[in-house]
Amino acid sequence: MERELGWRWRAAAAWWFAVAVGCSLVGSGSAGLLESNPGLAYNFYQKSCPNVDSIVRSVTWAQVAANPALPGRLLRLHFHDCFVQGCDASILLDNAQSEKTAGPNLSVGGYEVIDAIKAQLEQACPGVVSCADIVALAARDAVSYQFKASLWQVETGRRDGPVSLATNTGTLPSPFAGFNVLLQSFANRGLNLTDLVALSGAHTIGKASCSSVTPRLYQGNATSLDPLLDSAYARRLMSSCPNPSPSSSTIDLDATTPLKFDSSYYTNLQNKQGALASDAALTQNAAAAQMVADLTNPIKFYAAFSMSMKKMGRIDVLTGSKGQIRKQCRAVNTS
Questions:
Q1: Is 197 a residue whose pLDDT tops 90?
Q2: What is the share, in percent, of the chain residues with pLDDT greater than 70?
Q3: Which tens digit of pLDDT belongs to each residue from 81-105?
Q4: What residues does heme b bind to (predicted)?
């Protein structure tokens, strides 16, 4: 039964991969693609680094096999990069005031995977593949390890930005945000309601710090449950996040299938089992709540997530002669 289920998951993923590719190409023509994806292309490195996809996939899959938590971390890394100054790998830079040092990014991980991929690509194709593209490809391949088939295509051709400032991270959506604030945050990045609901589905894997959850459980020294939380689920959260909680304490964003990329996140929301206030907020708007209900269907979720990930990957990209191709992802080129 387990083998059959695994086959069904892989078949569904492969089928929706084909559907998503078709939807992105049909009726658009080359002019339409250039207009919607300025400077980006599928197989951008076909001549300059033909093995880029296989190198990224092999390194990523090997690391995910050793650490099943990496898909959630790499997805979050990609999201936090794109929402601050666009998808330019600025989150990777190391300096005293970089994006890494900002509160929302202190729990972001997966940097070591990007470093390992970059090292291999620099051996194969020195100075060719950007760190921004590596972040996008690694996020896709980390999720695809479960299915052994890619759920979405990644356009490439991004270049790396030279600036990383913690003060710029105010554009990241807060885990405490209500629906209208979330919708505006996404709109500011060129994303719509469908993208908000679909991309929130990334919370079907990964973890959140207890500090992101405890305001829904306690008020001062007293228990004060958010009415949008199921009481039994709230007790489970309280057992993992006592008051006060150690700073290192975390909870699974999806308590049902925490390591499986599936549509259970949306079922959890309908059962008042969204871990974050920003998750529960999706049920407080009629249109969003209808989308939540639709995306409990895993096939619909994979399709919607695929389209929105590609759209997110285009946010304020640097292409052509803008930016640079870093030799090391943690530092700008000195010359």
A1: yes
A2: 89
A3: 999 999 999 999 999 999 999 999 9
A4: 203
pLDDT at 11 over 70: no
Q: Give the residue numbers of the binding site for substrate.
A: 173
Residue 105: both structure tokens together:
């990014």
Mark the binding-site residues for Ca(2+), compressed into ranges: 81, 84, 86, 88, 90, 99, 204, 254, 257, 262
Q: How far apart are the C-alpha atoms of 292 and 11, rounded to whole Å?
A: 24
Dihedral of alpha carbons 114, 132, 254, 233, sign: positive
DSSP 259-282: TS-SSHHHHHHHTT--SSHHHHGG
Q: How far apart are CA 203 and CA 175, in angstroms?
A: 11
Q: How do residues 38-49 score in pLDDT, each as one tens digit?
A: 689 999 999 999
Strands 222-223 and 250-252: unpaired
Let me know: does 161 contact 92? Beta carbons within 8 Å. no
> Domains in the chain, start-ordered, CATH in brackets?
179-309 (1.10.420.10)
- Round to whole Å and give the CA distance between 211 and 215: 7
Select from 206, 225, 205 the least CA-distant residue to 215: 225
> Known catalytic residues?
80
CB 35 within 8 A of CB 100: no
